[in-house]
Structures are given as C-alpha cells and as structure tokens.
C-alpha cells in the first residue's frame, strides 16, 4: 500500500510545474549548449534572464568594495547586519528602491517607502498579495497569454483560482472591455468570487507595454466590479522602444481613493538589474490594510540584510543607476533587433514589441496541424532536433496554437546567432516533415491534454483538480 507521507497540498498537482515551460528547462539541463565543450547541445531560450549588463554592475562593485564586504566607511558592520531583523526592511534600502521605481517611471509618480513591502522576489510578492486579497473559491482574472509561473505562484499554496481573459492575435492580444466582462461572467458561472485582475506590464510573454487605453479600461472595470488590480511591473526598466512604458501608478493620477486603494504594484530587481539570485522584490500599495497584512506575511520571505545593505548603496548611486538603465536598454534593443532580423530572414515573424527579454514569435505556418497537439510536435522538434528550448504558447495559456516565447538576453550575441542559424537550417531544409523525435515529452495525465490547462474554459467547465 502506498504511504501517504505528504500533505494534500504538497501532493496536489496544481503547482503547474509539469508544464512544457518547466519540462523544457529540465531537457536543457541534461544537454546544455556550450560553444566549445557541447556545440550540439540545447540552447536555453526559455529563460527570461538578463545577462547583458553584468559588466556594469561588476565595475561598480569593484569601485565600491565596502558594501559587499560588510563595511561602511571602511569599518566592519558585520555584527549590525548579522543581527538586523526588522521585518519592515532596512529604511535606506526602501528609500533607494522607492526612488529607483520613481525614476523608471520618468519621475511622473512619487513612491513613498512607507507604502512598500519587501519580499523575496516578485514570486513571493505575487503570492503574498493572493494570500492578502483572496482565498479558495475565489479567483483572479489574467489576460492570456500569461507567465507560466503564475500557476504556481498565484494558485498552488493559496487555493486561489486563475480565470483567463481570452485575448487574441486579431488585435495583438490587447485587453478589451468585452474580454474582461466575458472572463468575469465565466468565473461567476463557476461560482467563483472574482477578487481582481492581474496584469504584467510590460507583458510577459508578449514583450509589449500596456497602452493608456487598456489601463483606463482596467481601472474602470475594477472600480465598476469593486475588485482589485495587481500590476506586475517587474520588466518596467526593460522598455527599449516606443511607445514608452506607462505604469498603472501614472494612469491613476487624477483618480480618487476609490481607485487607488484597490491597485497594487509588484516589482523586483530580477529582470531590470538581472539579479534573480538575490531575491529582491516588493509590493507597492496605497491601501494601508494591504500593506499591514503583507508586511506581516513578508516574514516568510524576507530579503537578507546583507543584500538590502549592498543594494541600498548601489541604488542610491543615482549617477550609476541612470547610466546602467540607459545602457541596459540600448543593449536590449540591439539584441532584440538581432533576433527579430534573424527570424525575418528565416521567414518567421513576431509580435511587434518594445520591452522584455523575449519575443512572442509566430510559428503558426510551421505547424503540421493547427492544434495544440501540432504545437507540441513542433516544440519537441525544436528541443530535440533543432536544439532550442523555446516556450510553447500553450504553456502561457495562449488559446491559439503556434505561438512561442523566445528569450534573447540570457546568452551571448554569438550564441543567439547559432540559435538563429539552427532555426533557419531547420526551416530551409523542410525538416518539419521528418519522422518524430525519439522521445516526446509527455504531459502528466491530470493536466489538460491540449497543453492548455486553463482553470475555467469558455464553456464554463472547471478543468483542473481542486487545490489541496
Ligand atoms: C511577470 C513575472 N513575474 C514574476 C516573476 C518572478 O520573478 P522573481 O525572480 O523576482 O521572483 C517573473 C519571472 O520570470 C515574471 O516574468
């Protein structure tokens, strides 16, 4: 007899980690590309990491040895940092982070450090907000396609459900009032209490910024329904082209308390500064009850005092942050151009984008059948034959087969060229009609067979296991 050693929560399959998004990472780990030691290996293009500007941060660290060495003005502050345990965070760090967030929004909005709650990355910030705002039997509406990690971050431990807002390529996946209303009604039909809408701006995986019109539609919608709006702005510093990034904080200017107390911003230094290993995130809210509750919960995922001290010094060097941000945007723009151009030469288009660390690539014409099975087949060929781990649209809950997210900032320009060459060779040689790859990845039985494990389908049926 099988022993039941795990809790229902731990054993439950709602963590979303059996998605092709995470399976692709596992395949890459088994056979990672290296230009010298493994030139036939898989190139990791499924990871939204920013490695383009490390040299700038490294130069700053070299010029400023004190903070990383537990020192202030040459004297050790090791004991102070070792003992620091105020869960509200280190005030100079919160101030520097608030100023940096204002700078990234063109200083059109002022961020008060009292409204900031520090968390171990945006992952923890998003989950903390779920715990504060919703519970089992309640839902957040998310525009599709969305970041695959949200299935784990928003749903797994909280028991909250995600109801997709179905966006389509016909209007470049823009969020409309009709799509919002349709998702809201679908959730209601399933007896789910809708607690809010969560967007990513700039979008992961689209690489586009939310327009002023969309932001206004969203704000009107949440006020009309009496619900919350979470704007995950983790990519705010990656906006490398026009139109410019407009934060929900800016869109709220001139609106009253009825709006501002229901809007919450998530931020992190994982993308803009390329520091996902440091685990630095934050919630910004003007709702004092949310700030109080989230601060208490932040005890479960604090940022280490050493990291806070180091980054308070780095972020308060405004000359550095300005130079870094401008240069980083320039490098992202160049790299994005390299990928778009390379794809175009291979006869592949992508959604016009102006931000992020990836492109949303249209491979519909390469599908053997215009179905999610066809998309999985193409993805398997990409991983095993072409040697590229890209993320299929179905892992982002896109409801149109044939779209893929392709990352460009976690590798060198040379590696990106190798990836583009491989793709072009694959397309030119018509290899897509070859026999199937030996070992197709299989989705677990209990996830949606189409690779589209949405919580609530258009016909209103619940499609996942209940959270444990
Ligand atoms: C939209 C979005 N939110 C949150 C995260 C998680 O970020 P962090 O490393 O800060 O936890 C990611 C990471 O890819 C992301 O793309």
UniProtKB/TrEMBL annotation:
SUPFAM superfamilies: PLP-dependent transferases (SSF53383). Residues 43-423 form the Aminotransferase class I/classII large domain. Keywords: Ethylene biosynthesis, Fruit ripening, Lyase, Pyridoxal phosphate, S-adenosyl-L-methionine. InterPro entries: Aminotransferase_I/II_large, Ethylene_sulfur-biosynth, NHTrfase_class1_PyrdxlP-BS, PyrdxlP-dep_Trfase, PyrdxlP-dep_Trfase_major, PyrdxlP-dep_Trfase_small. Its cofactor is pyridoxal 5'-phosphate. GO terms for biological process: ethylene biosynthetic process; fruit ripening. Pathway: Alkene biosynthesis; ethylene biosynthesis via S-adenosyl-L-methionine; ethylene from S-adenosyl-L-methionine: step 1/2. It catalyses: S-adenosyl-L-methionine = 1-aminocyclopropane-1-carboxylate + S-methyl-5'-thioadenosine + H(+). Belongs to the class-I pyridoxal-phosphate-dependent aminotransferase family. Its EC number is 4.4.1.14. It comes from Elaeis guineensis var. tenera (Oil palm). Transmembrane segments: none annotated. This is 1-aminocyclopropane-1-carboxylate synthase. It is an enzyme of class 4 (lyase). Pfam families: Aminotran_1_2.
């Amino acid at each position: 007899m099988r022993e039941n050693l795990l809790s229902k929560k731990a054993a439950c399959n709602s963590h979303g980690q059996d998605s092709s998004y995470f399976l692709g990472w596992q395949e890459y780990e088994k056979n990672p590309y290296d230009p010298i030691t493994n030139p036939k290996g898989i190139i990791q293009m499924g990871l939204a990491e920013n490695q383009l500007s490390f040299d700038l941060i490294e130069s700053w660290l070299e010029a400023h040895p004190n903070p990383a060495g537990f020192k202030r003005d040459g004297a050790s502050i090791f004991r102070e940092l070792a003992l620091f345990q105020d869960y509200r965070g280190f005030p100079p760090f919160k101030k520097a982070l608030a100023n940096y967030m204002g700078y990234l929004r063109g200083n059109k909005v002022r961020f008060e450090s009292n409204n900031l709650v520090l968390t171990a990355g945006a992952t923890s910030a998003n989950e903390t907000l779920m715990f504060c705002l919703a519970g089992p039997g309640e839902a957040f509406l998310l525009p599709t396609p969305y970041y695959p990690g949200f299935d784990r971050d928003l749903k797994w431990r909280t028991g909250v459900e995600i109801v997709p807002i179905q966006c389509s390529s016909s209007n470049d996946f823009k969020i409309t009032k009709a799509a919002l209303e349709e998702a809201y009604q679908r959730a209601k039909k399933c007896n789910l209490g809708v607690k809010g809408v969560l967007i990513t701006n700039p979008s992961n995986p689209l690489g586009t910024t939310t327009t002023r019109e969309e932001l206004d539609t969203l704000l009107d919608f949440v006020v009309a329904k009496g619900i919350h709006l979470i704007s995950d702005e983790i990519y705010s510093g990656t906006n490398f082209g026009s139109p410019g990034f407009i934060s929900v904080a800016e869109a709220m200017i001139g609106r009253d308390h009825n709006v501002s107390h229901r809007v919450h911003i998530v931020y992190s230094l994982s993308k803009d500064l390329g520091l996902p290993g440091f685990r630095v995130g934050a919630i910004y809210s003007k709702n004092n009850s949310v700030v109080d509750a989230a601060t208490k919960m932040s005890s479960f995922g604090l940022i280490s005092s050493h990291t806070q001290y180091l980054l308070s010094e780095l972020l308060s060097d405004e000359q550095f942050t300005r130079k870094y941000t401008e240069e980083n945007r320039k490098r992202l723009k160049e790299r994005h151009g390299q990928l778009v151009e390379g794809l175009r030469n291979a006869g592949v288009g992508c959604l016009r984008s102006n931000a992020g660390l990836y492109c949303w690539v249209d491979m519909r014409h390469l599908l053997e059948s215009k179905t999610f099975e066809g998309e999985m087949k193409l993805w398997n060929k990409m991983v095993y034959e072409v040697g590229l781990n890209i993320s299929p649209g179905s892992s982002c809950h896109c409801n149109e087969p044939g779209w893929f997210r392709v990352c460009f900032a976690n590798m060198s320009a040379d590696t990106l060229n190798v990836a583009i060459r491989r793709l072009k060779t694959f397309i030119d040689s018509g290899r897509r009609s070859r026999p199937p790859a030996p070992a197709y990845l299989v989705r677990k039985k209990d996830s949606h067979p189409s690779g589209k494990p949405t919580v609530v389908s258009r016909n209103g049926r619940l499609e996942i296991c209940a959270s444990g």
